[in-house]
Amino acid sequence: MTIGWLFGLVRIPVNMDKRAAPKSVKERPRPVKKRTGGSSRTGMTIVRRQGFWLWSKRLIGRLLDSIRIYHLYLKLRLGLDDPADTGRLWALAGPVSVLLASIPVANVILEPDFTQAQFTAESEGRVRIYPVQFIILLLVTLLSPSTWKLFYSRER
Fold it and tell me: Do residues 96 and 64 lie in contact, with contact meaning Cβ atoms separated by under 8 Å?
């Protein structure tokens, strides 16, 4: 994989080989934070707001417009220890695979593996992401009056 920046002037090759991966550093356990006040239902009240789904649909659509896929081949093989858990995972991944297969320049294959726990990915392609468009879009969305109205007029 190669990451290009500044219209191809800077190119950074990335090696995804398992043998070349550095040894992982042991993570320290994070301290448990105590909850202070606040309602745990705040997130659900935002989701239940009348304009939330329309707002999120517009945001996702605009974010996807700043990604250009020239060609893409992606093959994923998913499996968990328990076949029932793999079936539950496939219930979520199956519809996503149908949506991804509808992209004309992409060849996306998702396969369940009911025999063993594994995650195997094989990919090749050319995808261009415009980070300036992402940043501008996120700033415009976060600073828009409709966003502030959506998040600050929650039910109490």
Answer: no
